[in-house]
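worker-03 picked up job from queue 'complexes'. Input manifest follows; two sequence lines, order preserved.
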Amino acid sequence: MMLAAAAAFAVIMAKINEIVGPRRETDEKVTTYESGMEPVRTARERFSVKYYMVAVLFILFDIEIVFLYPWAVSFRQLGLHGFVVMFVFMFVLLVGFVYVWRKGALEWD
Amino acid sequence: MNTYLTDILQSGALMITTITGIVLLLVEANRRGRPATSFALAIVGLLAAGMTALIQMPAHGTGFSGMVQTGGFASFFAALFAVAGAMTIALSRSYLARIGWFRGEYAILTVFAVVGMMLIAASNDLIILFLGVELMSVCLYVLAGLARVRDRSNEAALKYFLLGAFATGFLLYGIALIYGAVGSTNFEAISAAFPAISAHIMFLAGAGLVVVGLSFKVSAVPFHMWAPDVYEGAPTTVSALMSTAAKAAAFSGFLVLFVRTFHFVGAGLNTVLAVIAAASMILGNVVAIAQTNIKRMLAYSSIAHAGYMLAGVAAANAIGLMGVAFYLVAYAFMNIGAFAVVSMVEDDHEQHLTLDDYAGLSKQRPLVAALMAVFMFALAGVPPFAGFFGKYYVFLAAVEGKMTWLAIVGVLTSLISAYYYLRIVVLMYFRDGAADVAAKPSVLTMVTVVLAALLVLQLGITPSVVVQAAQRFF
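worker-03 finished. Artifact:
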């Protein structure tokens, strides 16, 4: 009963909006994406090389998180062994992070 | 806690190299750090790792829950990679400064590539083998594109990367199929299951795909197409590293997998390896004759040498194992030396790389010409240089392994190779020309090249040093 009421409410509200709401269609409004992105254009667009740097670094440190989550979940079972191994892993990544930072790869300009 | 300590101490060379790499990263992160500091640190670290490996050679064992082996084979190759890495870094210093790419990252990447190579030789598990291959390759992709404003360097890096990634796919799929057939990635488990599984179609498919993946890394025909372009485009000292240490690493993968794990492989895989070996010898040597660029010539020569060494792997006996190990050591020093001389003659703008640029070199630079002549004679396999015994052992192994035809192909193609190696010697000594080195070679470079030449001579006179080490590999 509650479910049917909820579904009916949603449909009725959407319909009212469609019937009562004013329509002023412009070119931008009827395209596929209202955000303004063109749906059809050349695929050979040039990006600033800065984006690649961000993407590479993102993947690197994202993978770190992928490894950290399972370790955090089963932290008690893995015990000291897991703790030591994980800290060695994070230390190596930290060295990479320090390198990237000091080289200025994190600065946008 | 105690097992950690044992593991770390047992694989000392691997640890020292890894720590050297991490320290180098921190040095480079410090903005006041000079590239020269990184280069010196890298050489010291690699030599220390090499010494440690030699000391630890008699102690056999496994470490890190059976993932790596220590001592014997692993130590032997770790020492080779460390020395080859240290030599290329020493050679690169003045060359890179001259062409304007003297960066600390070169040392870091070389050290991490050496870590990857050591992992391959020490692998006791398919996963570690894969990890080593990738660590080595990724560093080499970047090194090949080091001179990033040069079109050819970019081309080399991109070609190497795309084809290398493709080959990695083959290797990984092969590993997956072997795992599917055996139920384990550990070499001891595969080794134990081998008699029962050796005719299993899934296992054979997996082993075949691994052959494809590793053949790419050693640049054997028909997986060689990248080699000439990459060796030509990459900075010359990087080509030296790729054609020696990286090739030796891939061969150590072949040896550890096919000789140790697959118990001197069954007949089917041997024939495949023998055909690849014969094709590499024939194509490498014949096409090398037509080359006018010396780096391309050395690349085709390197394909041919991969063929000789694969003959030793295909023979699948104890002499083959020893022969390939000896060949790899000898080849590392002769080829590093040859590329070093090329890097001296090459000018700052990728010119002076044709064979004609060596005409008359002996008049202006008698020592450099004499060293180049030593490396060329050694590559051609003329006694008393090390190249002769390398060829002798692998062809002997082929004959013992009932593959006489392969030895015959090997000897005939060696004869062909003498033409293009000795042509350089003839050009240097018997032709008039104004060939000269681009800049006065630094003391460090000269010392390294002379050392390489002495080692080539020494190994040719007393090959028993390596032979005895090879008898206690596993």
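worker-03 released lock.
Helices of chain A lie at 2-20, 27-30, 49-73, 75-102.
Chain A is about 70% helix and 0% strand.
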